[in-house]
Design a protein that fits this description.
With 91 residues, the protein is α+β, with helices and mostly antiparallel strands. It has a single domain, classed as Glutaredoxin. 48% of the residues lie in helices and 21% in strands. It has three helices and four strands; from the N terminus they run βαβαββα. The protein has a four-stranded mixed β-sheet with strand order 2-1-3-4, covered by helices on one side. A hairpin with a 2-residue loop joins β3 and β4. The longest helix has 21 residues. 22% of the residues are buried.
Amino acid sequence: MRIDILCKPDCGNLCHEALSNVRQALDQMRLDAEVHLYQDSRKMIDNRVYVTPALVLDDVVRIAGRVPEVLEIKALISERAKYMRRLRDAV
């Protein structure tokens, strides 16, 4: 699983709060994932994100414009796992 956090270069503390919440959620769920923090406007344009911070799970923008809570991140991660399991079962 890959988790990207997209921010403007001058975003400030919101990006680091989002990164901290993602790491807490992963620690609580005992999962390993690639976590990247991008403070690059080109990456934002590529993902069509106009408000920051944005949370991207496996190349899908899930949250934009606010810092997600730890419980919300855990729900998104577990939902993604169910989707992947259903996709594997269908093939």
